[in-house]
Design goal:
Elements (H helix, E strand, L loop, with lengths): L1 H15 L2 E6 L3 E7 L6 E7 L3 H5 L9 E2 L14 E4 L9 E11 L2 E10 L4 E10 L5 E9 L5 E14 L4 E6 L7 E6 L3 E6 L10 E8 L11 E6 L5 E7 L4 E8 L6 E3 L4 E3 L3 E6 L2 H17 L10 E3 L1 H4 L5 H13 L4 E4 L30 H11 L3 E6 L3 E3 L3 H5 L20 E3 L5 H17 L5 E4 L21 H19 L4 E4 L17 E3 L6 H11 L8 E6 L12 H8 L3 E5 L7 H23 L1 E6 L7 E7 L5 E8 L21 E7 L13 E3 H6 L20 E8 L1
Parallel strand pairs: 21-22, 21-30, 22-23, 23-26, 26-27, 27-28, 28-29, 29-30
Antiparallel strand pairs: 1-2, 2-3, 3-4, 5-10, 6-7, 7-8, 8-9, 9-19, 9-20, 10-17, 10-18, 11-12, 11-14, 13-16, 14-15, 15-20, 16-17, 24-25, 31-32, 32-33, 33-36, 34-35, 34-36
Helix pairs in contact: 8-9, 10-11
Amino acid sequence: MKRILTTILFLAVVLSAMAQIRVATPNIEMVLTAEEGKTLNLLYFGDKLNDNDFANLEHAGVLDQNVYPAYGMNCPVDAALAVTHADGNMSTELVIESVSQVMEDGAQITRVKMKDTVYPFYVTVCYRAYQDVDMIETWTEIQNLEKKPVLLTRFDSGYLPIRVGGVWASHLYGTWANESRLVQEPLNRGTLTIKNKDGVRNSHIDHAEVMFSLDGKPQENQGRVIGAALCYGGNYELRVDTRDTDYHEFYAGINPDNSAYTLASKEVFKTPELALTFSNEGLSGASRNFHRWARNYKIAHGDKERKILLNSWEGVYFKINEEGMDQMMQDIAYMGGELFVMDDGWFGDKYPRLNDKSSLGDWVVDRNKLPNGISWLVNRAEDHGIKFGIWIEPEMTNLVSELYEAHPDWIVKAPERDPVVGRGGSQVVLDLSNPEVQDHVFGVVDRIMTENPDIDYIKWDANMSIMNHGSQYLPKDKQSHLYIEYHRGFAKVCDRIRAKYPDVTIQACAAGGGRANYGILPWFDEFWVSDNTDALQRVHMQWGASYFFPSIAMASHISATPNHTVFRTTSLKYRIDVAMSGRLGMEIQPKNMTQEEKDLCRNAIAEYKKIRPVVQFGDIYRLVSPYDGHPIASMMYVTPEKSEAVFYWWKLETLYNDQLPRVKMDGLDPDKVYTVHELNRIDDKPLPYEGKSFTGKFLMENGLEIPYRHYVNYYKRNDWASRVFHLVAQ
């Protein structure tokens, strides 16, 4: 009751005159102006204001731009909302009706309810300002109280004007096996559009996140930066429209292409959250904000250390058998790992899963491969002192499967047309808009976990896009709802799984890094960065992913050489040092390793366990980018207390007489003294500063001289060099 009274008193103030609304976190702030019968406008977004500056803000020549522009009354400009009303009117004009602010679950919730000036059509613009991390989420709730349905043809989550003046955008692009590549470009006149139309996954080609550097070319640890992430797992569109004004106009939301939505009378359409942050500590500063927010609120079990695992895929592919699985479990246990994951190839009765052409949907054990079932493997893992995990792809089926034979009406398929197939020439997508399909997908997980309650980890894959538009469940007049209803159905399934199995670790694998987004991760503990495990390419991909995602969510594995994707041969030391910058794991057949290689990995795993809290919960500082043309890349993680740090250095190429830059560290306490210890050392003798101590000030102003090769036996030398230092304050 006290909360309700507080809200009512606040409303009385807002509705009597124009008010400035403060939406604030510990260090950032958004200021809005609201007056009954007027538009909701944005005055300011940036560092948190003191009382004096807030009081005089409106006199400073600030933004004063409409927060959620609707189409129809100023047609030449872009809009966040476009509606066709029941009578055919395509114009909408929204004015403020009420405002409320309350505290809920440690966050300040602001809701501004607006109504069309003619129709009983409402849009509530909402903000969630966290009080322990620097992130503000915004979304809209669109309500139709007209007597008949209205058609939504654009329904963005949010809009933000950004002052023109040397602004650059940093965002991610890629493809399968080359995900999360960084591109940085200045914003010029015209439109920058970042979008996805995959239907199932949304981060192979582009990402639904972007950073805007406001002070010229992006810098890692200085300069003002705005960061934005659309928290949605489906099709999206981010666009920056720069016209003849002083502002770059940034819009973000569900991609409306072929997704016009018929909003029934009394129905409410809620858009995904758009997360916004600000930092004056450069790109890495914005990343630190994203990482803290993610670990606290947007990743399952973000406060728990991740286990070190061995996955069977690159080791044996589909050649699953009991003896082989037991051998791999024994090997990873010897090397100090904590979890074994059996990948694809373990299932199928009528149609055994021997390759990727059949069996998806038939989630029963292939007794020819595993005569004693999964429970035997779970028990053997326990005997070895590790946990057991399993691979599934429950959103998909093959045309060659018992599931498809029983339920051909469950797949996504265009009316009157043959299914469009994907992987293996027979893979298709199940239609998650259908409640029966939702029950089936939940049942896949429920049945496995009920029969094997000690399973610790699920690798959830999704290897196909929606290729042909059509739902056999949705009515003819709702076919354009397919993309949206698919992800609503996916959310319902994930909610049910997490309600019943809150503690199981689940990885979002989607033909590699196709599901690296904050619409998926609240139900998932991590994502598979890429099917490409080549260490050199992973430096670039994991660097890009780190802009928005913390290392605790980035599965990074040591694999065999020649690499199975690019066939590059890199040293085991290099592969270890790259994998140790994320959630460490292995993707290899240990029986093909020498004893020396196993012992090197065993030592690395032991050392990773010592630095795991720093890497998985520390603050990132990117130092030298692999995208800047240097022959090296370098970054580090520092604990919030600045008592420990882990420094990474990777050489990217070898040229005779190449001059490598000395890397200055960052994020340390200048007054603390740090002792240096090299991890995973292979050199015949330690580096001269091994065990020595330096002030944080010295390390940040001078750095340490790092040799460009390893000092090893002549016949073991190669062109790969990398270093990992553990710094501990005295």
